[in-house]
Amino acid sequence: MSVTLEELIGSTLVVGIPGTRLTDEVANHLRAIHAGGFIPFARNFESPEQFRALVKSLNEACGRELLVMVDHEGGRVVRFSSGVTQFPDALTVGASQTPDEVRRQGQIEAEELRALGAHVNLAPCVDVLVSGSDPVIGDRSYGHEAKRVAEFSVARIHGLQDHGVAACAKHFPGLGAVPKDPHKQLPVVTLDWEDMRTVHLKPFIESIQAGVATIMSSHVCYPKLDSSPSLPATFSKRLIHELLRRELGFQGLILSDDLEMGALRGLCPIGEAAVRAVEAGHDMLLICSDVLRQRQAFDALCEEHRTGRLSVAALEQRVEQIRKSRKRFSCT
C-alpha cells in the first residue's frame, strides 16, 4: 500500500491534545495531520482506566497505534497521578541510592507505563548539574559529577529498555549549565569544546553506548560549539547531524524538545521552526499543546518537502527509522 507525503510527514509529529476525552474536533485534527505520536500531560489524566480508554480512542480515530511518549522522570516531573510508583527526583536518587536500585526503578516504570499504554519514557535527564544554573534542571539531574550522572543514567536506561519501554537521554548536548529557563526564553551556554567533551557530553556518549533508543535536543545556544553562534541546538546541523549522528554515532531517534517553548517563539514562526529542526537532523518533532500550531508546522513541512527545500528521500529514511523503533518496543 502506497503512503502519501502527508502521511510520511505526519508520522514524524508527536502532539499533545486538550482534555481527558477525545472530541470529534480533535479527532478530525489528528487525522488531518496524520499524527504519529501522542504526548500526554496531567490535563489528560484522571485515572488509569480513563487514560487507557483515551489512548484506545486516539488509536481508533487515527486508524493506527500512536507512539505514546511521556515525561516520567520522577520527583516534580510526573504526568500520571495514580497507577504508577512515585519515585523521588533524580538528585535525591543520585545522592542516596545505587545504580542497581535505579535499574530496578526503570524496570518498575517500564511495567507500569506499558500497562498504561505508553511506549517511550522521556527520561532520564543526563544533564550534568552546574552550580548557579537555572533551576529548570536542578533536581532533575543525578548530580554534579559526569561519572555519577552517566552511571545512574545508564542503569535507568537498561531498566526501562530491558522491560519494553524506550528511554530518552536529554537534553543534548547538555543543559546542566543553562542560565535561563528555555520554556520562557532563549538561553546561551558559553562552555567550550573542552568543557563539553570532558563533562557534559560524557553521559550522552555512555547512554549511546548503552543503546538508548532516543535522544532529545535542547533549545539553547552554544556559541562556542557552532559557527552560527545565534542558533539554538534545535536548529544546529553542526550539533544534531554532525556531532550527535555522525561523530558520536547515535543510530536511534533524535527528538526535538517542545517547539512551542518560549526559547523559539522570538526566533521564527512555528512552521519555520519545524522546518529548521528537520534540516538540523531531527527525526521526530514535539508540539505539545496548541492544535493550531501543530497544523501550521504540518503545513510548513508539507510545503517545504514539495518545493525541495526538504528532501523526501531523507524523510523516507527517517520514517523507516521510526518504524524500526516502534517495532523494537512492541508498537504496530
Plain-language structure description:
With 332 residues, the chain is of the alpha/beta class. The protein has a single domain (5-328), classed as Glycoside hydrolase, family 3, N-terminal domain (TIM Barrel, Alpha-Beta Barrel), CATH 3.20.20. It is 45% helix and 11% strand. The protein contains 13 helices and ten strands. It has an eight-stranded parallel beta sheet with strand order 6-3-2-1-10-9-8-7. It has a two-stranded antiparallel ribbon with strand order 4-5. Helix 11 (270-280) crosses helix 12 (291-307). The longest helix is centred in the N-terminal third of the chain and has 18 residues, at 99-116.
Instruction: Specify the structural class.
Output: alpha/beta
Residue fraction in strands: 5-15%
CATH class: Alpha Beta
Strand order of the largest sheet: 6-3-2-1-10-9-8-7
Order of SSEs, N→C? HEHEHEEEHHEHEHHEHEHHEHH
Count of domain modules: 1
Mean of the pLDDT scores? 96
Q: Report the CATH topology name.
A: TIM Barrel
Helical content (DSSP H or I, runs of 4+): 40-55%
Broad shape? globular
The largest pleated sheet is described as:
8 strands, parallel
Low-confidence spans: none
CATH architecture: Alpha-Beta Barrel
Number of distinct helices: 13
Quick structural summary:
With 332 residues, this protein is α/β, with parallel strands linked by helices. It has 13 helices and 10 strands.
Considering the chains and any ligands shown, give keywords for the structure.
332 residues; TIM Barrel; two-stranded antiparallel sheet; 45% helix; alpha/beta
